[in-house]
């Protein structure tokens, strides 16, 4: 049996996550061990070039049915990948690197930009991020801090 260099953090199947680099104080996320990569609901996605490097501009509304705390984000493009959704549909998605805080622990996660309007969660945390020391208990929820109510509108950039 091999020993981990860090202790595992117990997480529920849904948790509140912070995205401090882009000014999102809280976003409700589903922790999904069936998904490889994390995903976030993004809209008005626009690719552009900055000094010879591929970048993307997009908007995030962290609260469902509300535009409170909406942010516009600019980030370097990490990759463009073909991703199969839970419904079996394959699409190309832009991938960006985001620093997230889950249960008080910082994790750098590869995050695909996707239209998650029809989904119950604005963000999905996949295995790639969870493999950094999280154990998901599918019978529990919100083991970390609870988010306060929506705050105000902000615009932030990354990079």
UniProtKB/TrEMBL annotation:
<protein>
    <recommendedName>
        <fullName>Retropepsin-like aspartic endopeptidase domain-containing protein</fullName>
    </recommendedName>
</protein>
<dbReference type="InterPro" id="IPR008503">
    <property type="entry name" value="Asp_endopeptidase"/>
</dbReference>
<feature type="domain" description="Retropepsin-like aspartic endopeptidase">
    <location>
        <begin position="11"/>
        <end position="145"/>
    </location>
</feature>
<dbReference type="InterPro" id="IPR021109">
    <property type="entry name" value="Peptidase_aspartic_dom_sf"/>
</dbReference>
<dbReference type="Pfam" id="PF05618">
    <property type="entry name" value="Zn_protease"/>
</dbReference>
